[in-house]
Amino acid sequence: MTTYHRRNLIALSSLAALLALSACGRNDDRTAGQQLDEAIAKTDKAAQNAKVETQAAVDKAESAMQRAAEDTKAAGANAVQQIKDASAKVGQSSSRASADVERKLSDSEITARVNAGLAADKDLSVIRIDVDTRDGVVTLTGPAPTTKAKAHATEVAKAVKGVTSVQNHLTVRAG
Question: What whole-number distance in Å separates Cα of residue 21 and Cα of residue 58?
Fold first, then answer.
């Protein structure tokens, strides 16, 4: 016998005893059997009402759980999309930063190679020529002994791999 049935049996027995005792002091024309039947009917009605209320509560809880599950699923999908978007932005930033580093390393390498080429040339090695490189564009500044040396410095710079153009701002000394 289940706990539920035991409780109902105890409740019915207690109710029957109570009715029997209360009937002793009253002038009730109903028999004990009739009173017991009425008590059982009331208990059955109360049990039926409890069952209906319980089912309504269960239905309400299931509905709330389903809405919560749908909300959680939508929030999860939204979070996944935000992570993908953030990841893409990080990837783009990383690619841009990597390209900047490569360009700067490449510009530094170009500057070093142009300086080495100028230092190796006997006519240009004796003068101080400043070399700056940005995005493959080499800028030469400083003095040049002759117009021919100035033009030769441009040719030395253009010969370096990665140089896209040369801006020669060397000034020829008068004399």
Answer: 39
Rounded to 10 degrees, the C-alpha dihedral 93/94/96/101 comes to 140
Alpha-carbon distance values, 120 to 60, 115, 123, 147, 170 (Å): 88, 9, 9, 19, 18
Q: What is the pTM of this model?
A: 0.43
Each residue's pLDDT expressed in tens, for the chain with a length of 175 residues = 677 767 777 777 777 776 666 655 556 678 888 888 888 888 888 889 888 898 988 899 899 999 988 998 888 888 888 888 888 887 777 677 666 655 556 888 888 888 888 888 777 766 788 888 898 899 989 888 888 888 988 998 899 888 999 999 988 877 6
According to DSSP H, which parts of 121-174 are helical?
147-158
Locate 169 and state its tokens.
Answer: 């701002």
Judged by DSSP in three states, 140 sits in strand
Instruction: Give CA–CA dist 13/32, Å, rounded.
Output: 13
